[in-house]
Amino acid sequence: MDEHIITSLLHEGAPIDNFGIGEKLITSASAPVLSGVYKLAATESNGQSTPKIKVSASREKLTIPGDKQVYRLYEPGTQRAFADLIALATETIVDATSLTVVTSDPLSVDRQQRLTHFEARPLLAPVDLSNTTSIPVTTIQATTQAKLAELPRTTQRLVNPDLYPVYMTTTLSQLQTSLLNKMTILAD
Predict the structure, then answer these.
(1) Do strands 112-122 and 96-103 pair parallel, antiparallel, or not at all (unpaired)?
(2) Residue 9: CB partners within 8 Å, gap ≥ 6?
(3) Whole-angstrom Cα distance, residue 45 to residue 29?
(4) Of 73, 76, 161, 168, which has the fewest CB atoms closer than 10 Å, so is most exposed?
(5) How far apart are CA 179 and CA 65, in angstroms?
(6) So what's the pLDDT on residue 82?
């Protein structure tokens, strides 16, 4: 069994409460190895944060530099999310009638867009690592499920999901371009 079979069974009304998945739970037929890479976005020295960027010959591997905050954008007065927006941590995004943003997809042809009439709510919250009290797993799970429920259902399909737009602020995009240009000059 895998996620596709389980989804199909549940959509067909199968009276199943639990599933035994076995090795399909921990391995993927299409990508049996979990690939993860740590990419440095900033360094801190004497309380000063310095943004960093990873440059690659592959444009889609270009990192987004600096300390960031992610905002979920909603239609006004609703819980319907229509996009996420990555901003520098020093930027404050408030509810807006109009904002120019840049798509975070580095391969996009038309990168700049104008968003109108939205409410912005931050997704990231600081965590005090010196506090030894841990957050219960059930709280983390409930928060994650609530945030996923805000996304359009069509983006949550396992087969052919709609793309969920992720933008970045023009300030963050300009920082990325500036650091990229500095790296290109150094390489010449």
Answers:
(1) antiparallel
(2) 16
(3) 44
(4) 76
(5) 8
(6) 94
Which pLDDT belongs to residue 58? 77
Residue 2: HSE in the Cβ half-sphere, 13 Å Cα cutoff? 10
* Position 55, amino acid: V
User: What average pLDDT does the chain have?
Assistant: 85
Beta bridge partners of residue 85, listed in sequence order = 71, 167
Taking a C-beta distance cutoff of 8 angstroms, is the pair 50, 43 a contact? yes
With contact defined as beta carbons under 8 Å apart, do 124 and 113 qualify?
Answer: no
The residues, any chain, with a CB within 8 Å of residue 134's CB and separated by 6 or more, are: none
- What does DSSP say about strands 166-169 and 81-88: parallel, antiparallel, or unpaired? parallel
> For residue 156, which amino acid is it?
Q
CB 91, CB 69: distance < 8 Å: yes
